[in-house]
Each structure stands twice: as structure tokens, then as C-alpha cells.
Design goal:
single chain, Rossmann fold, 32% helix, two-stranded antiparallel ribbon, 468 residues, globular, alpha/beta, 12-stranded mixed β-sheet
């Protein structure tokens, strides 16, 4: 296990000391209130929204902001989901309004007023309560006196956050709990689940009724991410001849290429030229501006054999109205409106300009892969749902299928279509370790943004322990 495991056990000891500190504290450091109305939404909210902060760290120098939405069905019995948006550095608001929450933005030209919010009919809060937390610190509305963030700190903070939140919300202590997330969350999230499990076994209070986890389009083993090229070939983006030449000259290794292998490098350069006009987050969608400055090169992205122009835009620009990313632009105006901040309870002076994703944050990528944690969680018997939008070239479904196969668990429900409204919505397979894999037909990175109805059906069946 080597250096990673030594670091892991050291961090476990540090976690134990930190959790004990807040376990014996008589005053849980939480601050939340109910939001009844939001600028941009007509009338009172038709669901329960609570926002607030939870202090984490030994001196609570980190304040994590959250949005909590009660289940619109039966909040006392329905599961509780802690949702970790990827990035790292993407705000929880992004997951709420673009993926699985009950609100979204009306796509209309910005005129200087507060952008309009509309209800999203396929919100996962129809069947579960969800906590969307801005993590790591420095993301969204969370803030900290410590600038340096990283995988391990985010993991410990997520664990502390949830236990403290439950102390302040004792009515949810008995609810079944799942940890969910997508994209880069595929690295820290399985570790968060394991730490919560270990904390339960160590007697930490309150005990979390942990049942499992779910991940969409998850980054898992970046150094082995050699599936962008086979995916592109299967989708008809490169020719048979180029693919055969890549296989012959690169031997299946498209990431850590020997610089002396000039034939492989030549083929990869041609591959990049062929796919440079493709939107990697969804290959059928147009390449649009992201309304973001070009982020620093992110270490886990270095492992891929291509870069995605839709993510790595070179300058700040306003997307056109027909682009999906135009609503990202509206979201920035909404979240930076003073009346919105007041309605959400944002502490004055705590942060400057809100960003949907801060790719330039000071972040340490400390965990090279999460496969061993999936293995540990499988041995402990936790349920899991792993799903992939099948038009995502950032984290292709081929990569996800490969690491799931590498776990070597037997198949209990073989590959078959799953349906919504009588139509095929994707394909699924289940394993003896209680893991379910599903593709979402027509989904991108990440799937619920592109196929909300299908993803809601998938989630609602799985969370109620029904077959897809």
C-alpha cells in the first residue's frame, strides 16, 4: 500500500482527535435559517429551504455554507443525501440549480435585473432530503482563514460537517444517509464514506445511519485514463485507420507516453486535431464559452490525452443565448446580487465575488485514485450507484466500466436496458457487492443536467431499493 496508506492512517489519527474535540463541545457551531422567498422566484418557495454555515476544523476557522432542502414527500422517513459537487472548486449551487435540485434559471437574455428562477419538475428532493454543501472551503460561499485546501482536508471537513449538522438537526439522525456527488467527487467521496463508517465503528456521535453512496461520471483512476481515444473511435470521431495506428504505435497507453515514441506522439497530436472542435462534456452539443477565465491546468486533467475547449476557455466571454452555458452566466449574476445574498443569509464581507467554479484555487491533489476505497466499501457491504452519461468524453463510460470490472465481483443482474415512459433510458448491470452501474442515454458530464427526467427515475428507483 506504500506511502498513500501511511498518509491515510496519519490522517485518520488527526481526524479522530479533531472529531473528539467537537464531540465533547456543548455548543454545536451551526447557524441556519429557513428561506421562504428568493429574488427571481415568484411567490413563496413551495418547499423547505434552509441555508447556513457549519464551522469545522479544530478552531472552526473554516465555515462551510450549505443549502438544505427537505424532501417534498416525507422528510421524516425519506433518505438524507449529502451532495458533494465536483471541480474541485465548483459551488453546491451548481448541483442544485443545474443538476438535481428543485430550482433552475429561465434562459432569457440578461437585462440587468435579477435572473428569473423556475421550478424543475424532476428534482431529486421529490423523494429525498438533500444537503448541498460548498466544499472545499473557498468554494461558493464557504470561507476559511486557511488558504491551502486539498483532498484530505476536504474529506475531514465533509465528515465533521455532517456530524455537526445532525447534532443541530436531531430529527434526521435516524434517517438513512447516502453520500452523493459527481465528476472530481469520485476521488474524495468514497474516502468520505469510509471515514464516516470508521467514525461510526469508533463510537462517534451522533451515529450516522449510513447506507451507501452514489457517483455520477466519476473521476476514479486518472493515471490510467486511457479511454478517451477508444470512446472517440466508438462514437465515430476518428477514423478506423487512425485508431489502429494509435493502438499499434502507443500500445494502449495514451497518457504517459515515452517522448522517444515519435510515432505515438504524432498520432495523438492528430487525434487532438480531429477532436479539437468537439465539446468534451457532451459530444453532441456545440462548443460554447463557459463564462469563466481559463483555469490553471488541473492535475487530474493532465492524465487525459485531450483537453476540452468547453472547459478550458481562453478568456472571459458571454455565451450566446442558445448555449446551455448561458444559464451559468445568469447564475453568476444571481448569486452576486446583494438582495440574493441577503435572502440566503450570506455573511457580509465573508467572500468577494461568487464563482460557479474556481479552478484556480490553492488546492493539493493528494489522492491519486479512489479504487481501493471502493473495494473497502464493497467489503463493508454498502450499496452504491455509479452512473455515466454516455456522451461524456471527459470521463467516458468505458473508463468507469473498466474500473468496476477490475473489482472482480460477480454479476447478479446482467447488462440490460432500463426504461422511462416506455423508452430505453440507458443500460444497467448489478454486481454482488451491491453496486449498480448505469449508463444514461444522451447524458453528458454530468448526466442529470442533460437528462433530468431519466436521472430522476434512476435515482428514485435506486434510493427506494428497487431495480432500475
Amino acid at each position: 500500500m506504500g506511502k498513500l496508506s501511511c498518509n491515510y492512517y496519519l490522517n485518520e489519527i488527526l481526524l479522530l482527535l479533531t472529531v473528539l474535540l467537537f464531540h465533547f463541545s456543548s455548543q454545536p457551531a451551526t447557524c441556519g435559517f429557513i428561506v421562504k422567498c428568493l429574488p427571481g422566484f415568484q411567490g413563496p418557495l413551495p418547499f423547505v429551504l434552509e441555508t447556513g454555515y457549519v464551522g469545522v476544523g479544530e478552531t472552526e476557522d473554516t465555515q462551510l455554507f450549505y443549502y438544505f432542502i427537505e424532501s417534498e414527500n416525507n422528510p421524516r422517513d425519506d433518505p438524507l443525501v449529502l451532495w458533494l459537487t465536483g471541480g474541485p472548486g465548483c459551488s453546491a449551487l451548481s448541483g442544485l440549480v443545474f443538476e438535481i435540485g428543485p430550482l433552475g434559471f429561465q434562459s432569457q437574455e440578461y437585462n440587468g435585473s435579477v435572473p428569473n428562477l423556475v421550478l424543475r419538475p424532476n428534482s431529486w428532493t421529490k423523494v429525498s432530503s438533500i444537503i448541498f454543501v460548498d466544499l472545499p472551503a473557498g468554494t461558493g460561499f464557504s470561507y476559511s482563514r486557511t488558504l491551502q485546501q486539498g483532498d484530505w482536508k476536504a474529506i475531514h471537513h465533509a465528515h465533521q460537517f455532517l456530524r455537526k449538522w445532525l447534532i443541530d438537526h436531531p430529527g434526521f439522525v435516524s434517517n438513512k444517509v447516502y453520500i452523493g456527488g459527481d465528476s472530481y467527487s469520485g476521488i474524495p467521496l468514497p474516502v468520505v464514506v469510509e471515514e464516516i463508517s470508521n467514525g461510526n465503528e469508533a463510537g462517534f456521535q451522533p451515529r450516522i445511519n449510513l447506507q451507501g453512496y452514489l457517483l455520477g461520471n466519476p473521476v476514479t483512476n486518472p493515471p490510467k485514463a486511457n479511454y478517451g481515444i477508444p470512446f472517440a473511435h466508438g462514437m465515430g470521431l476518428i477514423s478506423d485507420e487512425l485508431y489502429e495506428s494509435l493502438q499499434r504505435n502507443c500500445g494502449g497507453e495514451y497518457v504517459n507516453v515515452d517522448p522517444r515514441n515519435v510515432n505515438c506522439i504524432r498520432d495523438i497530436q492528430y487525434f487532438q486535431k480531429c477532436t479539437s472542435g468537439i465539446n468534451g462534456v457532451h459530444i453532441l452539443e456545440p462548443v460554447c464559452e463557459f463564462a469563466l477565465r481559463k483555469p490553471v491546468e488541473i492535475s487530474w486533467r493532465r492524465s487525459f490525452a485531450y483537453k476540452t475547449r468547453a472547459v478550458l476557455e481562453s478568456h472571459l466571454a458571454v455565451p450566446t443565448l442558445n448555449c446551455r452555458t448561458y444559464t451559468y452566466y445568469l447564475c453568476g449574476h444571481w448569486a452576486n446580487d446583494p438582495d440574493v445574498r441577503k435572502a440566503l443569509g450570506i455573511r457580509e464581507g465573508s467572500i468577494g465575488k461568487w464563482q460557479r467554479c474556481d479552478y484556480g484555487m490553492n488546492y493539493k491533489y493528494e489522492i491519486p485514485g479512489s479504487l481501493e476505497y471502493h473495494m473497502n466499501l464493497s467489503r463493508k457491504g454498502y450499496r452504491s450507484l455509479i452512473y455515466s452519461g454516455d456522451h461524456d468524453m471527459i470521463v467516458p463510460f468505458l473508463d468507469t466500466q473498466a474500473w468496476i470490472r477490475s473489482l472482480n465481483y460477480s454479476i447478479v443482474d446482467d447488462w440490460r436496458p432500463w426504461r422511462t415512459n416506455g423508452q430505453v433510458a440507458g443500460y444497467t448491470r448489478s454486481y454482488s457487492n451491491r453496486m449498480t452501474f448505469a449508463t444514461v442515454k444522451g447524458g453528458g458530464h454530468t448526466a442529470p443536467e442533460y437528462r433530468p427526467e431519466e436521472c430522476f427515475a434512476m435515482f428514485s428507483r435506486w434510493i427506494s431499493d428497487r431495480p432500475l
